[in-house]
Design a protein that fits this description.
Blueprint (H helix, E strand, L loop, with lengths): L21 H13 L2 E5 L6 H11 L4 E5 H6 L6 H18 L4 H8 L5 E4 L4 E4 L9 H15 L3 E6 L11 H11 L3 E7 L2 H8 L14 E4 L5 H15 L5 H11 L3 H12 L5 H21 L4 H13 L4 H12 L5 H13 L4 E3 L2 E3 L3 H10 L1
Parallel strand pairs: 1-6, 1-7, 2-5, 5-6
Antiparallel strand pairs: 3-4, 8-9
The chain binds adenosine-5'-triphosphate and magnesium ion (MG).
The site of adenosine-5'-triphosphate has 21 residues, from helix 2 and helix 11.
């Protein structure tokens, strides 16, 4: 069997498997040491989760890691139930890794409303039904107390937090409280839909409780062309597969520096799928799922879809895009309404403005929109 490390599809968790990004890794560590609220942002498939997991692992940071995408994909949808279950699981995973202090931590949680504690198997269950719902602020206070007693900075990670925006929970208020009073907790958030994430937190909204609190931002970037080529060549060499330079360059041209898609290409190629278009199509089907989930949550699904289709064909100026939408719908559209829709797509990372032109930023996303949406 071929052992591939660089092209392994799971998020990376150790420095030896993480290509490059040592600067981002150090940035994240510095933010963790000095800030209270950290946001890891970057395009889809750019390597945010890998960066966070590698940081937590390499620096042995005590952490509770909640994958908010799992919450939104649960059979109960984004609900207090699925949130409470994911948080319970994340907390129990933390306990599992640190059996030595499980009893001390559980003792602190025993009195918190809505937290069921089982000392015999060192687990908790957070209650979610309306009347007996767990008290999240008190839960965090207990975690903070524990971190203070142990002399550690406990990281609370919410990967892709914007997925929880439909939840009836004021994250802005909760995080402002954590920021001001729970000084041994560091909250690390990640988001590929950075505008939606910041809207949800209200960091730029004077009315929001979080307004004025400093968010330390770590940006995960696309790889340059030469880095992308180097990444693929290293991966192929590690897998012992000889690949023509021309094939590598063509893939890099098509995949636009997104390490997740480069990894997917490398993995597919090593496993016998050699046709680039075929690989792009498989990737774009995955991406289409994400777009569909976004559209399903909006009120103007049809209009959003048309704008995305138009912008995925070629970069367009504001007025050109609006006219094309009007032509497609056969009605005139108010400037303000059109702009609101466009801004929302930008915030969701589905459209980008480059040199006065609106475009779909990622080629896989563009293929997904054209073929599968
Ligand atoms: N620095 C890296 N070196 C090697 N492989 C990486 C690196 N970063 C990410 N990958 C690979 O790219 C893919 C996507 O990574 P990851 O899930 O971390 O990205 P992401 O930005 O969190 O994606 P998403 O937007 O889907 O949440 C995975 O297959 C992962 O193994
Ligand atoms: Mg991720």
């Amino acid at each position: 069997m071929v052992v591939v490390l660089l092209f392994d599809l799971a998020p990376k968790t150790s420095r030896k498997d993480l290509y490059d990004f040592s600067e981002e890794l150090e940035n994240l560590y510095r933010s963790y040491r000095s800030a209270r609220l950290v946001a890891v942002v970057g395009p889809r498939r750019a390597g945010k989760t890998s960066l966070i997991l590698t940081f937590l692992n390499e620096y042995s940071v005590p952490h509770i890691f909640v994958d908010c995408r799992v919450v939104s994909l649960s059979e109960y949808g984004v609900s207090f139930r699925s949130f409470a279950e994911s948080l319970s699981n994340a907390f129990n995973a933390f306990l599992n890794m640190h059996r030595g202090f499980a009893d001390r931590l559980l003792s602190l949680l025993r009195g918190v409303r809505g937290v069921e504690v089982d000392f015999s198997i060192a687990r908790i269950a957070l209650r979610w039904k309306r009347r007996e719902r767990f008290n999240i602020a008190a839960f965090l206070e207990a975690l903070n107390m524990f971190a203070e007693n142990e002399g550690v900075r406990l990281a609370l990670v919410f990967d892709e937090l914007q997925e929880l925006s439909p939840l009836n929970l004021d994250f802005s208020k909760l995080l402002a409280y954590t920021y001001d009073h729970l000084r041994n907790l560091v909250v690390i958030l990640s988001g590929s839909q950075v505008g939606l994430l910041y809207d949800m937190l209200g960091v730029e909204d004077p009315e929001s409780p979080l307004y004025g609190r400093l968010v330390s931002e770590v940006r995960v970037r696309r790889l340059s062309k030469s880095e992308s080529i180097d990444f693929l060549e290293r991966g192929f060499s590690e897998a012992g597969v000889a690949v023509n330079r021309h094939v590598v360059e063509e893939a890099v041209e098509r995949l636009d520096g997104l390490i997740g898609w480069l990894t997917f290409f490398g993995w597919s190629y090593v496993n016998g799928v050699r046709d680039l278009e075929n690989i792009v199509d498989t990737a774009s089907r995955q991406e289409a799922e994400e777009v569909r989930r976004f559209l399903a949550r909006t009120r103007s699904e049809k209009r959003f879809r048309t704008i995305l289709k138009l912008a995925s064909q070629k970069p367009m100026r504001w007025s050109e895009l609006k006219r094309a939408l009007e032509f497609s719908e056969g009605v005139e559209i108010d400037d303000h309404n059109f702009n609101t829709l466009l801004q929302r797509l930008i915030k969701a990372g589905l459209i980008e403005k480059r040199d006065e032109h609106y475009t779909v930023p990622d080629p896989i996303l563009a293929a997904a929109i054209q073929k599968h949406i």
